[in-house]
Amino acid sequence: MEIRFQNSPKETSTMNTQQLRDNFHVPGLMKDDQLQLVYSHYDRVILGGAKPVNSHITLANHPELRAEYFLERREIGIINVGGDGTVTADGTIFPLSKLDALYLGKGTKDVTFKSNDPKSPAVYFLLSAPAHQTYENRKLSKEEASPVTLGDQSTANKRTIYKYIHLDGLKSCQLVMGLTVLNEGSIWNTMPAHTHTRRMEAYFYFDVQEQHRVFHFMGEPTETRHLLMANHDAVISPPWSIHSGAGTASYSFIWGMAGENLVFTDMDAVAISEIR
Q1: Starting at the edge strand that comes first in sequence, how are the strands of the sheet with 159-165 ordered?
Q2: Which one, of 180, 171, 221, 225, lies nearest residue 197 by Cα?
Q3: How far apart, in whole angstroms, are the C-alpha atoms of residue 49 and residue 140?
Q4: C-alpha triplet 215, 219, 224: angle, nearest 5°
Q5: What global pTM score does this model have?
Q6: Could you report the per-residue pLDDT of 14-34, keeping only the tens digit for each?
Q7: With CB atoms counted within 10 Å of each terminal CB, which end of the chain scores lower, N or C?
Q8: How far apart are CA 197 and CA 118, in angstroms?
Q9: 64-92 residue pLDDT tens
Q10: 101 phi and psi, to 5 degrees?
């Protein structure tokens, strides 16, 4: 498990392209039959990916957690963006199709990931945060996530938003998770931009065509930088940073947050005219 420490706005403003990528860009989260994890000191979240193809993958414990098992003092959100599969949690089997989500609470000991068909493997994005109490292990399908269509084709941001783990959805201690699917011909996400110093955020880009990329914008609103994102790349967004993107074609992305506020709409808006 890779460990990444925090960076201040002042420090980040002096970084070159490679330094930005080393600190905030998480490339290639999905590798066949492997579990990839990155521990970020922003709100102590762990983001990762599991892509079981020829065998199942276990959510293994790591010595850095100083725990008896991975979820001894943590919760985790899981969203499948690939083929059909199953997640087994302490003997309970949860079938997950594409865009289905699963929440597993503190105290869940044994977690395994499987695919139904190796020719169309499941692709699981994971986001974990410290937890202070136990909430029910629950699945939520994409149909149950109250999808809402927003934006307009004239501003190239027509999209459908699915909210899974939030104050009025799957219960959690501090995780908030969902995803956004952009319509064909739309490329902009989260513009106008915002920050929320009460919680960090992570993006995971998927359904990005091989020959295309997403320009992900980060940094303080008046000190913006960008990262080039490919399919199955993730980005760590500090609480003080904007998080917005424009693709060379339409794409989808998972957004996940952790911090002190579970209200989805808790954000500090930044007008487009104020961004530098």
Answers
A1: 25-26, 234-237, 199-206, 252-259, 175-182, 159-165, 148-150
A2: 221
A3: 19
A4: 65
A5: 0.96
A6: 999 999 999 999 999 999 999
A7: C
A8: 41
A9: 999 999 999 999 999 999 999 999 999 99
A10: -125, 155
Is 184 labeled as ligand-binding? no
Tokens 């699945």 belong to residue: 139
2 is in an annotated binding site: no
Residue 196 annotated as part of some ligand binding site: yes
The bridge status of strand 111-115 relative to strand 85-89 is antiparallel
143 marked as part of a ligand binding site:
no
Q: Give the amino acid at 18.
A: Q
Question: What pLDDT is recorded for position 146?
Answer: 82
> Cα(9)–Cα(111) distance, rounded to whole angstroms?
37
H or E segment and range at residue 111: strand 111-115
Tell me which residue of 33, 41, 10 sits closest to 24, measured CA to CA. 41
Instruction: Sketch the domain layout of the chain as residue ranges.
Output: 2-274
Structure tokens at 59: 């959510």
What class has domain 2-274? Answer: mainly beta
